[in-house]
Amino acid sequence: MRYFIVDDDKASRLMLKNILEGQELGMVIGEADSGVKAIPQILSLTPDLVLIDLLMPDLDGIETIQQLKSQGFNGQFIMLSQVVSKEMVGEAYQVGVEFFIHKPINQIEVQSVLRRTAEQLRLKNSLTTIRESLALIGTLDQPKVKRTIKEIVLAKLHDMGIIGESGSRDIVTIVEVLAEQNAAQLPPLKELYEAALHKMGVQAKEIPKESKAMEQRIRRSILTAMDHLASLGAVDYTISEFEYYAPRFFDFQEITQRMKQIQEESFGMKAVKVNSKKFLQVLYIETMEEQKKNL
């Protein structure tokens, strides 16, 4: 993964570079202390990811991103910011920022965000390749290629902002297991997790312990999906991903509560609840319906 760092603070740039290269997360191919200096370099070097500070002289982070996009740059951005207000989150989402790293910089947070972003980018590129291949087949007037369960589920997880989460693989495997069983309804989650682990090749003696770990991974991923959709809704409830996924996959009262917390900048004041069984049930039903359309 190739990175470019834009930050007017030299110490921050050095710290980020040391984390990236010291943890073998990727290679820093360039850096700049202002948006004005960064734009021509980024357009020339075309990095995969740009780490960019929000507050800078001349051009701030959002203005720099807008100029880069207007000139054809299609890479991803991670925003560096000491203060994350609802207005800033709204502007950032509108220009395509999906991830934030808070200042002062914390090594654990940087590693976590960059690993998730890199995985999301890798899977996104895979999905793009698949879609392009399907489009090409269609132009050649050849029979449609049936989309796999994995492809359909990954596309939906991408829309909900969790394709890079550790629980995404678990969720895909669970839907594959349900499809193989042609399940009319979900069995108890404990049985479902055990069946998924068996499919993954986990040894029988390890399944009870791994089942609990899988449960936690899936729950964290679903909570992240709720946060992502609530953040979109807090900015603009007519955003298509929010309109489609929020009422289908979640209790709308919980989504509304999270949106209110985001709008009032009160993250973490009150825990929200998620229904893992409902999430998986809806995902399974929608996946099977979508696959039937491709037959």
Describe the structure.
- The protein is an alpha/beta fold.
- It has two domains: 2-114, Rossmann fold; 149-293, no CATH class.
- Helices cover 62% and strands 9% of the residues.
- It has twelve helices and five strands.
- Strands 2-1-3-4-5 form a five-stranded parallel sheet, with helices on both faces.
- Helix 3 links the parallel strand 3 (49-53) and strand 4.
- The two termini are 37 Å apart.
- 31% of the residues are buried.
- The mean pLDDT is 85.
List keywords for this structure.
295 residues, alpha/beta, Rossmann fold, five-stranded parallel beta sheet, 5 strands, Sig_transdc_resp-reg_receiver
H/I helix tally: 12
The stretches of 5 or more residues where confidence is low (pLDDT under 50) are none
Radius of gyration: 21 Å
The tally of structural domains comes to 2
Largest sheet: 5 strands, parallel
Intertermini distance? 37 Å
General form: globular
Along the chain, the helix and strand elements come as: EHEHEHEHEHHHHHHHH
State which percent range the strand residues make up.
5-15%
